[in-house]
Amino acid sequence: MISLRDVSRIFPGADRPAVSGLSFDVPRGSLTALLGASGSGKTTTLKLLNRLEPLHRGRIELAGVDTANLDPVTLRRRCGYVVQGIGLFPHLSIAENIALLPRLLGWSAARRRARVAELLELVQLPPAEYRDRYPDELSGGQQQRVGVARALAVEPEVLLLDEPFGALDPTTRGILQSELRRVQAALELTVVMVTHDVTEALLLADQIVVLEQGEGVFIGSPEALLASEVAPVRALLEAPRQQVAALHDQGVAAP
Amino acid sequence: MSTELANQLAYLPDYLGQHMLLSFAALGLGLLVSLPLALLLTQSERWQGPVLAVVAAVQTIPGLALLALMVPLFQAIGFAPALAALTLYSMLPMVRNTVTGIADIDPRLVEAGRGLGLTDTQLLFRVQLPLALPVVVAGIRTATVWVVGMATLSTPVGATSLGNYIFSGLQTQNYTAVLVGCVAAAALALTLDQLIRLLELGLRRRERGSIGIAAVLLAALVGLTLVLTGQTPAERQALRIGAKAFTEQYILARLIETRLDDAGYPATVLDSLGSAVAFDALTAGRIDAYVDYTGTIWANYMRRNDNPGRSAVAREVTEWLRAEHGVDTVIPLGFENSYALAVRRADAEALGLESIDDLQPHAADFTLAADYEFFDRPEWASLQLSYALPFGAKLSMDPTLMYQALQAGEVDVISAFSSDGRIAAFDLVVLADPREALPPYDAVLLVAPTAEERHPGSTAVLQQLEATVDDSRMRAANRLADVEGRGIAEAAASLKAAE
Lengths: 255, 499
Description:
Chain A is of the alpha/beta class. Chain A is built from 10 helices and 10 strands. Helices cover 42% and strands 22% of the residues of chain A.
């Protein structure tokens, strides 16, 4: 569905590329996690996909078409985007946030209303209760659900998520993670998700791309990741293991 | 309620209406220019600094100066130059707030919008502008208070405003008028400030009720303005009599107005015009008549600094007005209001001062006070040339205060006006001018050809004023208004009764 070939992005004035020579494919209907530490280039890679960042070198195809030949606005409407920190518009109600793009595309009021209800139900927020509220009246988890609903408003082929669950408490995160899987399966969405959480990547992804200093140091399945002997991957995996071990030593948790 | 207050309040609908019309028009135009300009600036950070600096620099020009600059620029007096100056003045808070309002939006929201697939225009109108709206409205609020305040200064460029109360009130020491003008301007500014604040709060808190109330009340004020400024056809037809910004001019303009009214010709007074503004307005046909002085025309507009004598100056001025400006009706009123140096009687007697020559040995110990334009006028140069007076100090001040300052001993010599009632009231001595350094200042009523075109027969009515006001009558009338505080209407009536 998406393919990256030798993709690089250098920020003006930077001494090394933010993304360097990256190549991988995202199969249709799968979920790919971009995993890495802060500054590893995973958010930049995501933004290259919908051309929020320009490509310095290489080629990205969406369904076989070079994205450089697509109008950026059209491209972005085909790729639902959930920004880090949610990014709901505070001056618009929940329904207006979700229906913003449909409205700009000239959908009728009735069609917009039906779509808002459908999407709110999909993310398990009862429409009657939530459609007329404003973002600041919602909890972080509820806002995140609305963010996903908004990204899905005009039935994109691809969903791009930038640290969607980063700011949530562990319980809410767990619930939303399983809901994402459910929604993805129901809509047969192709998803690319940025995360710095190894556990999250292992739980959700069909394919994991590990980035370090802009380079793809591992591309493969969660099982392959666990078995990988690549040093940076081992380091990533060690952190949660050490946490579990520490808990075990204190007699708090079973291994 | 005192009679004077009632008298003054009679002008309120006209002055307030004109004031609001000017303020609203300037704010509307300012918004129409500022918003697109600010939006362009948000697209180009390179231009933001320089453009904001220029807009801020306009703000540092004193209000009165900015208004005065617009007169030559527009070659006009009245509404247009005042509107231009106020519009420029209103722009800084509107442009700056719009630019910062948009710049201060969380960049993640902008990125979210772009990521959703909004075009730049959609992003601007659906996300950036709505989010910046409370800040933009706060800028409009600041601009409104500034503009309503500064609009009082548009009186001297010929635009009627609440400033008419203040300027004429200060000149004639009618503090009721000054107070009415100040209170009305402040009340208007506060009302608008609070209404826009309500609008701003409503936007911030998403209260449709507040927004609606504020919008309805603001619309009502705009409607009221249109009602107050709507002119009847008769008012549009009225002959326009100009008056410069001092007491004698107010009295004479009122005299002329009543004269025309009595003869069945509608007339209105445009008062507190700047001196050059009045002359330009007459020659351009924007006012139909006003009183000027031969010496002013001789020195300021004909650029002459010789003095061939009173009758020769009058003759040449009359010929020049006809030949150069087509003003063929120049009616001598019968009195002179020339510049004259005046001293306290006590000094005159103690030092034996009778003529300007006698000042020579004492000048170094004396302080000379004069009106704002005197030291730049040819009369001052001519005085220096003829008498070489090395005054110890020179001060420019408001002519009204000059006489009091002399009486109080704060200054020693003033550039008095010979027809001023305060010369007698304060027991001052006018020094003779044996070298004829100061040109004659015969008061002449100038009537533009437009008067006869619009109201045939009106010029003949004005001709009847020829030689009806002599020096002593004018001085007495000035004294009534300036010293005794009896009001312009009464002073004008005294001239009429004496005819």
